[in-house]
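Example with several molecule types.
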Amino acid sequence: MTYVAGLRRIGDSPRYVLTLDDRVIEVLVEEEPLAFNVTIAGRAYEVATSRRHGARRREEGDKFTAGRWRLVAPLTGVVSEVRVAVGDTVAEGDILVVVEAMKMLNELRARVSGIADVVHIAARDRVEIGQTLVELREAIAP
Amino acid sequence: MLKKVLVANRGEIAVRVMRACRDLGVRSVAVYSEPDATAMHARYADEAYLIGPGPASESYLNAAKIIETALACGADAIHPGYGFLSERADFAEACADAGIVFIGPSPSALRALGDKVEARRIAEAAGAPTVPGSGGRVSLSEALKIAPSVGYPLLIKAASGGGGKGIRLVEKPEDLETSLRTAAAEALASFGDDGLYIEKYLDPVRHIEVQVLADTHGNIVHLGERECSVQRRSQKLVEESPSTVVNEATRARIGAAAVAIAREAGYANAGTIEFLMDKDGAFYFIEANARLQVEHPVTELVTGYDLVREQLRIASGERLSFAQDDVRLRGWAIECRIIAEDADFLPSLGRIELVTEPSGLGVRVDSAMFNGAEVGPYYDSLLAKLIVWGENRGEALARLRRALGEYQVLGVKTTLPFHRQLADDPAFIAGEIDTRYIDRREKAPEPSRSDDDTALAVAALLKHERRPPESERPLSGAWRRAAREAAVNRSRGGRWRDTS
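Resulting structure tokens for the full complex:
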């Protein structure tokens, strides 16, 4: 199959019209440093444009990477409580940090069991989405 | 009739109130915080005045500054909207002292209904059933003591709470103490009062509320019920009127109970009496919201009354222009709250890069969104409300799906994907909902990949376009090659399929 494809931007908005032969498809595009977020018919597709980007994303899972797990702020807000100190043994599901955003207290939990290695924040700190708050290291069985 | 109304609020509700003012030929005044200088409500109003920096405590909650502004610009009334100062008896009192009409109930009614314990006493005096519980504020140690007799699961509620904030569900005795501490901290942060009470948690249960209108001459009517069972963290997400489980006989009974409670409280203006309804159709009073509610438009669409206009008339001292027998419900209305939250219901902040709102017959959008609007951390994350109407629930649902399909928001994550999933959910379509609907629901499945290749084509074309100028080749023949050169990865798995 061969298509004749064209892409036209509407003004300087994130709205584009993709033509594939005679088909007209409205798409919305948000550009990020290493990816395009493309929305078609209400569904979002993230298209990464480099392998490095994809590799980085896989780190943010529920597993230790290189013996280390990071609690990353899922939202922007103010730390209202830090329930973990360096050296504490933490079980999966424990509340590590409580972040207040829009008057709601959001309890951020450990997704792995481990030992608190670094605590980057203190109560009343303002945190940005994506910021590392706490780092856990893998507990090595004796 | 009032001549000039200051709206002590922001966002969609401020705009909605100003629209009613304009319909009535009443001048509207906005107050705004520094980050809201470009906000829609500040631009829509006939006049707008800066009242302080971003944090609500220094702007939209600054009662003295707001009253001073109203006096300075010659406003004869203040409409508080919902949230912020809307249920603060001391604010209503300060308005009265300054000779300004507070568009809402009297300070004494606000005080009585704002205290959940007193509200419960009023309901009991009016002969309405109430939910088993502590019956009053309890300290941490008292709560621990009486919890076993109330039974699990139970709810911890902030004595000064509202809008679902400061409510915690406790399923097991061992979680009680931690939950009490978190609830107290949240109550203190949100309402400046860490008082709590506990209540039996009924499950499954529906949240059914009744809209009432009361004038200052003793006339009280109800405008039917709203079904608000689709909630997360006790905050409503979807509301409809009427309810699939309320027939005419039940409506007459629950409506009469709501009117009796409003009368017992000496209520005037628009208000909502909230009930829980169990699976057998028995209902229990839970609280009264002494203000205009977020979900008031569904009532407007099925009754035809403009609730804000009625509020302004009542505040002007006019009598209700209709009686209970004149109130007729026609058709079905459903509202979806469009909130800046991601799929896990966590706040999503940022700039709205693009918004396209639906329209057409039977579709109403109450919104303060616009291209370039900043969604910041200071205020409630409600961006807009989509309200649809149909002759029956099926027609309303079809319209809802159509309108949700038209709705586009880029830049912040919203609850739109949740609503699209809900509108297609067989349980919701069948009206099988209760307050645990969201807890029970399956996490949204991965979207179908039907447009994967289209998305790839777009990205490839854009990547190609962004290449250095020496590679100026016609796009049409080269897009597939460009795609390869761009080393496109798929974040959702799968791989590039050669279409040749």
